[in-house]
Amino acid sequence: MRFILTNDDGIDAPGLAALKESVSQAIPDAEITIVAPLHHHSGCSHQVTTDRPIRVEQRSEFAYAVEGTPADCIRVALSHLQLQPDFVLSGINAGGNLGADLYISGTVAAVREAALYRIPGMAISHYIHCRQPIDWARASQITGAVLDKLCHQPQISGSFWNVNLPHLLERGMADPALVFCPLCTQPLPAVYQASETGGLQYAGEYGKRARDLGSDVEVCFAGNIAVTAIRLWNQ
After folding, report:
1. pLDDT, position 33
2. What is the DSSP letter of 80?
3. CATH class of 2-231
4. pTM of the model
């Protein structure tokens, strides 16, 4: 299988290295090409660059840093680099992309762009609980198991998987369960406070967000892997 790997945290992010390792372990004969943003673009949604040149830096035979957004990366990979992937993977994002996050996330936008071209994809994110550090080695191991299960499942044209890993407990503990669940419909906390420099500072707490019963937010916060099938249009 041929994979394009990307993210929104930048080409040097540890989550991207962990994702590459998980693919190599889960699918040993995979052909992997990284096409990722040169810089951090978290929260950029589906922004694309059309008003200036996009610089592409070739890091190696199979790695390119794009001076643009995650959606730009997929456009460049498919058109300019003329890659023909069987699957697009985006992540592993440092932070959850659950429910309403889907509309904000650059991580998710990359696979949504791929889905517009009818290419299967998966966005993978890691929930951060109380600012605790991420064990990237364990995240890579868990992601490998997710890939092994989902990469071989049929996907409807114009759809992709949104996967959120929970806060992972120490090694030696049982792996979290994989739960297929719907997207949460509740908004993110809209809380602001006065800033010392003037204006308003966002003060919402991610862990205190409202959640629907059985939704991806509830599943992930309960310590399980939340897997949601996202469709861009009705068939």
Report:
1. 98
2. I
3. alpha beta
4. 0.94
